[in-house]
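Hey, resending since the last one bounced:
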Amino acid sequence: MDRGNQSVVSEFVLLGLSHSWNMQVLLLMIFLMLYLTIVFGNIVIMILIITDLHLHSPMYFLLANLSFVDIFFSSVTTPKMITDFLRESKTISFGGCMCQILFVHFIGGVEMVLLVVMAYDRYVAICKPLHYSTIMSLQKCIGLVVASWTIGFVHAMSQMAVIVQLPFCGPREIDSFFCDIPLVIKLACMDSYTLGILMNSDSGVLAMTCFILLLISYTHILLTVHQSSKTGALKALSTCTAHITVVVLFFGPCIFVYVWPLSVTWVDKFLAVFYSVITPILNPSIYALRNKEIKNAMKRYRNSYIDFKRNF
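The structure tokens again:
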């Protein structure tokens, strides 16, 4: 379909998180610090894993990929939101809006599947330790990561193939800080109720499937460790609780947005902030900073840096 004959809207207006100038300045400072923390924290984790030979294992290979995905995911929407706090007119071009939708669902889908892969890695390590090196070989890990990116790409393209064909000829205000499918579909010059349900179901099925697989994996882990030793059960419970917290904070908002939409604007904005900004900060702190080997790697890196300065 020729988009030129269907769409006369060249840009959309993002209403953002607040209309108060003082509040926007405050939010600018908060989200700028959060974004810098996301980028810096995840880059540090990636550098540690790449450079430290002690961390060249399947678990940390997957963790490095998660850090990269978190930087990518938060960079799709957060920089635009931050710069919009300084603008009176918060507009985004039609192409820019479509790109945001594409990458939000592409990278979001990758992260969902990657979290399942990481849970599977922990399941194999704890429940089948003797076969761990065979099951989670480097080739297997690379294959699982490639599968994550493939599933995310197919999911995003299946939705973009529909969205770009919609006719936009009137309303252009999006009551959020970024473009997302449920909000953009409402602006189409057509009865979009059924289409909205179908598009939300597409995202909802992926989110619910990954969420259920994650719960099954962590349940198996806890049951297996509980049967072996109480000390191990307590340690596994602590680790799994932290991981499940991240999972709930990431998947919970996605499920409410796409599976059971509440249609309450401020709630949708709050949930969007959670899975686009808060979760990428929690991932490094939960998966890495609480990890003993990561802490030891940071100490080794710090000590080598101090030794280098002394010799220099």
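Confidence is low (pLDDT under 50) at residues 1-5.

Sorry for the duplicate.
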